[in-house]
C-alpha cells in the first residue's frame, strides 16, 4: 500500500509538471494559475500544493525535468575525452543541443516558455538569477574546454579562451532566439549545423 501510494504521488507530480508545461506554453507564465494547471492535470488545487509550494517551484520543476537530461546529453560530448581536439567537442556538443531541440517538441516548448512566455515580474522578479544559472554554467564549461584547446595549441593564435567562450555563448544564445522566433518552415533549423561548423572553423588554428 505504501509503495502504491508513493508511485501514485510520483505519477501525480509528473502529470502536474506536464500540465504546467502545456498551460505555461498556451497562456504564458504570468497568466497561468495553479487552478488552470490543476484543471489541466485533472486534480484539485490542493493536490498541486501537496507537491509544490507555489507557481515558481512548479516552473523550476518543469524546467529541470527537461534541462537535466539535456545537459547530461550535451555534456557527454562537451566534456568527452574521446576528442583529440577540444574544439571538436564544443562543435559536437552545440550540434547535439540543436538536434535535440529540433527532434523533441517538449524540449522546444520549455525553451519557448523560458525565452518568450515568461515575464520576470511580481512573484518571478526574484528568480531571474536562478533562471539564468544553466546558461552561466554552460559558459563556464566551454571556457574550460577552450582553455584546453589553447594549451594544446589548437586554438587560433591571438584568441583568448575567456573571450572566445563568451563569443560562442552569445552565438549559441542568438541562434536559439532566432530559431524559436522563426516560424516553422523557414529552414533555419537546417542551416544551423553549417553555421556551427563555420563558427568553430574561425577558432581553429
Summarize the structure.
By secondary structure, this protein is mainly α. Helix content is 75%, strand content 0%. The protein contains 10 helices and no strands.
Overview of the molecule:
The chain folds into two domains: 1-52, Arc Repressor Mutant, subunit A, CATH 1.10.10.60; 65-201, Tetracycline Repressor, domain 2. The chain is built from ten helices and no strands. It is mainly α. Helix content is 75%, strand content 0%. Helix 5 (86-103) runs antiparallel to helix 10 and helix 9 runs antiparallel to helix 10.
Jot down its keywords:
single chain, 205 residues, mainly alpha, Arc Repressor Mutant, subunit A, Tetracycline Repressor, domain 2, 10 helices, 0% strand, elongated
> What's the rounded overall pLDDT mean?
91
**Oligomer state of the chains in this structure:** single chain
Number of helices: 10
Query: What name does the CATH topology of the largest domain carry?
Result: Tetracycline Repressor, domain 2
Q: Give the CA-CA distance, first to last residue.
A: 63 Å
What CATH architecture label of the largest domain applies?
Orthogonal Bundle
Question: Which H/E pattern describes the elements?
Answer: HHHHHHHHHH
Percent of residues in β-strands = under 5%
Total number of strands = 0
Main beta-sheet annotation: none
Question: Could you name the CATH class of the largest domain?
Answer: Mainly Alpha
Query: What is the radius of gyration?
Result: 20 Å
CATH superfamily of the largest domain: Tetracycline Repressor, domain 2
Decide which structural class fits the backbone.
mainly alpha
Number of domains: 2
Task: Determine the fraction of residues in helical runs and give it as a percent range.
Answer: over 70%
Report the principal-axis shape. Answer: elongated
Which consecutive residue ranges, at least 5 long each, have pLDDT under 50?
Answer: none
